[in-house]
Amino acid sequence: MSVRMNNKLGSIEIDTNVVATYAGSVAVECFGIVGMASVNMKDGLVKLLGKEHLGHGIAVRMNGGRIELDFHVIVSYGVSISAVAENLVSSVKYKLEAFTSMEVEKITVFVEGVRVID
Q: Which residues lie across from 75 on neighbouring strands?
């Protein structure tokens, strides 16, 4: 799925996979985020995704010039989950709006697991 924006010079089409991958790369740079999570609804298992699958832990909905995101993340043990989530939301919102020139309307963070980092 993609969204098309028109301007005086033509149109720009952005695929949701591009938005998800970019948002995932921003998210894993945030303090306290171990990585993106993939949840198997059938078994209830959570899997840490590798760097090549950053967009798979993110659901993207685009409507016109607005973006909504759902992040499924794994956080570091011992961090403040609310502080990590607030940092992720503000970083992703700022960088994604600059990247796409679209408004990020809503970001929901689902913490799917906690990992001890060596």
A: 33, 114
